[in-house]
Design a protein that fits this description.
By secondary structure, this protein is an alpha/beta fold. The protein has two domains: 194 residues, 2-enoyl-CoA Hydratase, Chain A, domain 1; 47 residues, Lyase 2-enoyl-coa Hydratase, Chain  A, domain 2. The chain is built from twelve helices and ten strands. A six-stranded mixed β-sheet has the order 1-2-3-5-7-10, with helices on both faces. Helix 1 links the parallel strand 2 and strand 3. Helix 1 runs parallel beside helix 4, helix 6 crosses helix 7 and helix 10 runs antiparallel to helix 11. It starts with 6 loop residues before the first strand and ends in a 10-residue tail after the last helix. The model has no long low-confidence stretch (mean pLDDT 93).
Length: 260
């Protein structure tokens, strides 16, 4: 990932990696280069023990306004189904093992909405707008929009958004359960970084297993998910961080977690 131009990466706080989408003139449209750079950045963050949480953001005008339509115009069925490198990128986003927080301002449409939904927590600025307008192009969402959106907001709202292509504002997104918080636009990123810093201070293995357990709630029958949760709970009794957390509680001090 040498001299990337479509994303910018920095480490603003201990344990926190900030990734900015960086195509402002195109409203951060998700062209192939951007998707590949983002996948590489997340893979690197996932393998770096110093990174405990990733914050993903765009700019004031757009988180990401969707796919790069010009780039997609001549794509064939074979490319989309089997040979499109985009699919591998989206798989990397979905399988990112650490907590990811999206700070969204402006448009999060189509692939931009789908990318935001790959995050575990979405903090949106007051003026943010979310939508899946693919039907306006004779398409449907193809990177999780019909599935993640339905799980987040329920069938009724998902059907309305996907079938009409209409967008919803941050207030409607909060009421529907799509986002976790609303902040003033100029403070959305600050709030996301604040949450990231809070999570980064927790026991890393417990945080990762907690994320896994919550995600399984949408994928498994209740009894199987409860059994999976119990096994993850038991596994944490073998960690140094569990012993440190309990000792710190008893000794009335702040714990120092090391990720072991």
């Amino acid at each position: 990932m040498n001299n990337p131009t479509d994303i910018l990466v920095e480490n603003p706080k201990p344990g926190v990696r900030l990734v900015r989408l960086n195509r402002p003139a195109a409203l951060n449209a998700l062209r192939g280069r951007l998707l590949e750079e983002l996948a590489a950045a997340l893979t690197e963050a996932g393998e770096d023990d110093a990174v405990r949480v990733v914050v993903l953001t765009g700019n004031d005008r757009a988180f990401a306004a969707g796919a790069d339509i010009k780039e997609m115009a001549d794509r064939t069925v074979a490319e989309v189904l089997g040979m499109d490198r985009r699919a591998a990128c989206w798989l990397a986003y979905r399988r990112f093992p650490k907590p990811m927080i999206a700070a969204v301002n402006g448009f999060a449409l189509g692939g931009g909405c789908e990318l935001a939904m790959c995050a575990d927590i979405i903090v949106a600025g007051e003026g943010a707008r979310f939508g899946q307008p693919e039907v306006n192009l004779g398409l449907i969402p193809g990177a999780g929009g019909t599935q993640r959106l339905t799980r987040a907001v329920g069938k009724a709202m998902a059907m309305k958004m996907v079938l009409t292509g209409e967008t919803i504002d941050a207030r409607a997104a909060l009421a529907a359960g799509l986002i976790a918080e609303i902040a003033p636009p100029e403070l959305a990123l600050d709030r996301a970084l604040e949450l990231a810093e809070l999570i980064a201070a927790k026991a890393p293995i417990a945080v990762r297993l907690a994320k896994e357990a919550v995600l399984k709630a949408a994928e498994m029958p209740l009894e199987a998910a409860l059994d999976h949760e119990r096994k993850l709970f038991a596994l944490l009794f073998a960690t140094e961080d569990r012993r440190e957390g309990v000792a710190a509680f008893i000794e009335k001090r702040k714990p120092s977690f090391v990720g072991r």
